[in-house]
Design goal:
- Helix content is 40%, strand content 11%.
- The radius of gyration is 19 Å and the shape is globular.
- It has six helices and six strands; from the N terminus they run βααβααβαββαβ.
- The chain is α/β, with parallel strands linked by helices and 220 residues long.
């Protein structure tokens, strides 16, 4: 296998997916005010990365925003055990509010980059919308309860998918379910292949993008 020709880099599509790990870490270790204060700095790093790529010849950018973290079983189920308040979709409302603020600032930053890097083409992809649409309509789309993940366990203790733990002399296994095709969440954090296929179809056809172009037309 040969390396790409240097000229190919300016013809490539650069995909950037940003926010989920940053915000998830924040929800576990910071207050909401601290997370909000950190958002501009996170986006400064994103901005610098895009400009560096642009300086090396990149001209087509496909930017994914962050999905509804408050709907992940990993985040929602522990919150439920503490008698927290959920929204109408069974998600942690305050977490998704923070995510939406992050996404709004990301979109504003993308618009600034469009103005400053006039030779580049930017597509802002609303992954949040695609994932939330599936979660809200899970049953009609052929899936079970979105909080019903497939692999691992959170009760009586957290055991990662494929591992095991001793609890009061009993071995708790993080086994996989037998019907992952019916689940949205694989392990409470990541989506299953079936859910990803559903989401990807909407991402690639441009229906959740700004501008609304399919990925095949994303390069100038």
């Amino acid at each position: 296998m040969s390396l790409p020709h240097p000229d190919d880099f300016s013809k490539s599509l650069y995909t950037l997916d940003i926010g989920q790990n940053d915000l998830t870490f924040g929800f576990q270790n910071m207050t909401v005010d601290q997370i909000a204060a950190a958002i501009p700095g996170i986006l400064d790093g994103f901005d610098a990365a895009v400009q560096q790529l642009y300086g090396k010849g990149a001209r087509a950018f496909w930017i994914h925003n962050t999905g509804p973290i408050g709907c992940l079983p990993f985040m929602a189920l522990p919150f439920k055990s503490r008698n927290g308040t959920f929204d109408q979709n069974g998600c942690v409302a305050y977490q998704n509010n923070v995510v939406q603020e992050f996404n709004q600032q990301l979109k504003e930053r993308v618009n600034q980059l469009k103005n400053n890097l006039s030779a580049a083409a930017f597509t802002y992809v609303n992954v949040y919308s695609a994932k939330l649409s599936l979660i809200c309509d899970a049953k009609n789309q052929g899936f079970v309860d979105p909080l019903n993940y497939c692999c691992g366990t959170f009760v009586p203790t957290f055991v990662m998918c494929g591992l095991s733990a001793q609890v009061n002399g009993t071995t708790i296994h993080g086994d996989a379910c037998g019907d992952p095709q019916d689940r949205i969440s694989w392990d409470g954090i990541h989506f299953t292949d079936a859910a990803n296929s559903w989401i990807t179809a909407r991402i690639l056809n441009g229906s959740v993008s700004d501008p609304p172009v399919p990925v095949s037309n994303a390069c100038p």
